[in-house]
Specification:
The protein has three helices and ten strands. It is α+β, with helices and mostly antiparallel strands. It has two domains: 74 residues, Helix Hairpins (Orthogonal Bundle), CATH 1.10.287.90; 132 residues, Sandwich (Immunoglobulin-like), CATH 2.60.40.420. The mean pLDDT is 89. Its cofactor is Cu cation.
Amino acid sequence: MACPAQLGFQDAASPIMEELMYFHDHTLMIVFLISSLVLYIISLMLTTELTHTSTMDAQEVETVWTILPAVILILIALPSLRILYMMDEITTPSLTLKTMGHQWYWSYEYTDYESLCFDSYMTPPLELDPGELRLLEVDNRVVLPTEMSIRMLISSEDVLHSWTVPALGVKTDAIPGRLNQATLMTSRPGIYYGQCSEICGANHSFMPIVLELVPLKHFEEWLLSTL
């Protein structure tokens, strides 16, 4: 989860988030180089006497400043499209979890198991146990297995919501009357926090998401104790 005064992303817990962080660093380096070049040219123009004014009318210069931006855009677009297709790739899921957004809580349904569904409300600050996080803890956590492909079916019953878990690289809109799909897979166990990322009303800030990712053995034990 995020830490105070943190400037970067949260630690990646899924292959997709790792790719997104690599792409962010790749694009940021390109932006840094462009900014440095522009600043250098501006400094030269302000401090150097122009003795070859005809240079700016040269055909070669116009060719370079037309082709170079196109090459830079290609260097950004190709990895971006690759990640986009990876995020939309649908594999055979091992588990399906249906998520419904409400004002202002989430409800979950494990569609592979009969009658396994529950609502997830934010824990009020006065009921928090020591060590629990204010405005991020819920009364019912979502327990999922690690290293398995999980299909998320996300919708809403009232207004627009957005089911977002930054550490997993997942952000999918919950739209009334429409069922959106996302693929989720984690590479390590842990507890991951998220929130609704779509302004959905007065209590928009009080719709936390808590995922508890555990090994398959512990997930099966949780299922047996729940069913």
